[in-house]
Amino acid sequence: MKPKIATLGSHSALQILHGAHQEGFETIVICREGHRKPYEVFPVADRILDVDTFADLSPVMDTLIEENAILIPHGSLLASTGGVVPDLDCMYFGSKDILDWESDRTKEREWLTDAGLRLPRIFDNPAEIDRSVIVKFHGAEGGKGYFVANSPDDFAEKIKGYTDRNYVLQEYIIGVPIYIHFFQSRVMDRIELMGFDKRYESNVDSLGRISARDQIALAKVDPSYVIVGNIPLVMRESFLTEALMMGEAVVRESLALTPKGLFGPFCLETIMTPEKEFYTFEISARIVAGTNPYVNGSPYTDILWQEPMSTGRRIAREIKMAVEQGRLNDVLDGA
Known about the structure:
Layout: E1 4-8, H1 13-22, E2 27-32, H2 37-41, E3 47-51, H3 58-66, E4 69-72, H4 75-80, E5 91-92, H5 96-103, H6 105-114, E6 122-123, E7 133-137, E8 147-149, H7 152-158, E9 167-171, E10 176-185, E11 190-203, H8 204-207, H9 212-217, E12 225-233, H10 240-254, E13 264-272, E14 278-284, H11 299-305, H12 311-324
Parallel strand pairs: 1-2, 1-4, 2-3, 4-5
Antiparallel strand pairs: 6-9, 7-8, 7-9, 10-11, 10-13, 11-12, 13-14
Helix pairs in contact: 1-12, 5-6
């Protein structure tokens, strides 16, 4: 029985399911109550399954197994489970173990540091804050709750209400945020540069559109970093060498972390400074929403594949090639 492609109805599901159709797969989308509309309007899902919460997929697990479905993870799965992907009886694309390294910021930093990437300083204690820091909470929630603090007192005031959450105090690097999308293929044994994006965040980006005088007048409005959208970006070609080398380095280091290492789509979340230095502040070890502007492919995938190739379609192409070569277990977790 040919596999079907399944994913949660959120984040990058339209892209994933559309790409699966392009590669000839039937598709299944799993929706929370009240969130069916996009998958009824856009013709990407052959079947819609309902759950109360993404944190508990047990009500649809038997159906996924019967349909021979492969579940494709994205950020909504991590956000709903606190970053720890639960045991799932259905087939699963990618490595759950590597996602644990993404969701724990201490382990994530160890991974990136050992890969030789340049990282912002981390402050172990709020009393050490002597410059602007961004306070980030653990897990994949699209920047929810992040804030900037400039002193120990500033931090103490702004952390009120978040005392039950784990956080990291990260040096705030001034520069251009650049999100680099990759695909590590186990079937073809190569890394592919899929594209770049920058993100529109509320309300920090809207505050940046007004004059300094008016920003002072809005002094009581705290900036927030909730991602509301993604903007495609084409990098200067001279920066591509370092970007590719960074991607290769984290894949190479990942093989020391889990048996299969990092494979499939992933994203390095970076800042480029005026000195043309990349600082990597996070890795997302699965498809990111920043790939959504490229449903018809990016300049880089167009050159590489000579046909429309989104990250969603690239996932399906990898599965298709694995099936044709009798290597499906190579792209599934735990197999």
